[in-house]
Fold these 2 entries.
Entry 1:
Amino acid sequence: MDLKFSKVTRKGPITIVTLSRPEVYNALHIDAHFELNKVFDDFSADPDQWVAIVTGAGDKAFCAGNDLKWQAAGGKRGWDKGGFAGLTTRFDCDKPIIAAVNGVAMGGGFEIALACDLIIASENATFALPEPRVGLAALAGGLHRLPRQIGLKRAMGMILTARHVSAKEGHELGFVNEVVPQGEALAAAERWAETIAKNSPMSIRASKQTIQRGLETSLEQAMTEQREYPAVKAMVASQDYIEGPKAFSEKRPPKWLGR
């Protein structure tokens, strides 16, 4: 696939996706959305890729959101089934995705980060859902994910004022997992990804799917139904399910196959 608006690097079982439109602070338009949807389709389908990291090109921006200049000039809006950047409506991916936020994460850029499982932010990162300032609304998941992740009142405080939030405050609010010095967000995200990849990928996928599905229902129903979740059934039927206890009993590192 010829990539024009993003770059993909693979390090072992880790896929690093870089949003690459630095001339517009990595803001995205329709062609970029369709490209990124294919990138994340490929990641989701590749059995040898276990964790993904998404970051932005340059040191100023993760993603400034929707390319408003493109829109104002008459550019067509839209995205594929995966949503903004191929991520915001990608509800069927059970592999962990980490946002390495290295600067501005505004509007859709913040919504991309919120759609990830972890957010690692550099000290110069800034987050906001500023859509109301330009007559829009954060309809790529921000209005739903932020209240679920930090609570209603805190989310309302950000959304209704459209204010900017620093990485430090994002950590205090609870949507940022770790704050690191400027320039170190990607390295820190790789550290997190490498730690995740030491675990059974089958167990990680089962855990993510169970959390996501469980949050959609009552605790009792979730615990009753969890063994029927596809990723849990796949874990139980996998070779990793045998390898883990065997490696533990033999006092050696497990050799995960991801199947």
Entry 2:
Amino acid sequence: MTLLSSAPGGAPVRRPDPPSPSPAAPVRRKQGGVVLAVPALVWYLVFMVGPLVAIFVIAALHWPGMLQPVSFAGSGNVRAVLDDPVFWDAVENTAVQLVVALPLMIVCAYMLGYYVAQKPPGHRVLRYLLFIPGLISTPAKAMVFYAVLSPDGLLNGGLEKVGLGSLTDAWLASPSTALYCLIVLDVWSGIGFTAVLFAARLGSVPDEIGEAAQLDGAGHWRAMWRIHFPVIRDFVGVVTMLQFLWTLFGSAQNVLLLTQGGPGSSSTTLSFLVYQKAFIAADLGYSQTVGVVLFLVGLAGLLTIRRVFRQNY
């Protein structure tokens, strides 16, 4: 469009049209964004997709050690895994660990996070205290629990002091308690950090929602579960998925440090079985077959959690 303006003498003067944006400019910007994403895409393919494919490849091989000759095993590893009673013990232990630890951790962390979000006296100090388990390394946490649960540890000593010596036990060496001691460690390690995440998310909920609930006569319990929980339902799902993955794949380090999967296979989990067969028994094919099972369990668990906690609106 040509613009007209008046010259000092009163005569109209034509001004040229402003340059129109080139149609190719958005295309060039889009191509530039794709180019910037290439390094991250290459990194993801090499270090994420590559190892995932390698798990399935190694699961089909008979590989008795890193420097040993490799041969094709076909479905032999699958049959060996399914016929192994230790594998089924690991499946049962992993199921118990998830069923007990995950709901307990999420429910307690949400309630604790709700309390912190109400900003009680000293809530800032409480946030820092809840972070303490996350600041301690895994070996240090294992040493603390070993000092508490060993036969001459603090727990047995405390029971004897109060006259309950008949309840003392070798907690980490007993088939009936070893797994539950590991579950307690998982819950203690994750509940504080998870509570801080919940408190941060609940802090972003508009104050008007809580005020309206109070005007309607809702107490803290009802406001916590009937008002605030539906608002952050999707965030609860994200945190639950993170803790599910940590419990499923990260339990091997606690088992390794405290019980070595024993006594027998009473505390062996799937993630520890992967480590045990790969680095102790030197059976890489068996190990990665269990790794495939672990991957499928994790994928199914993520999809289930996502479906359960998706928003209904």
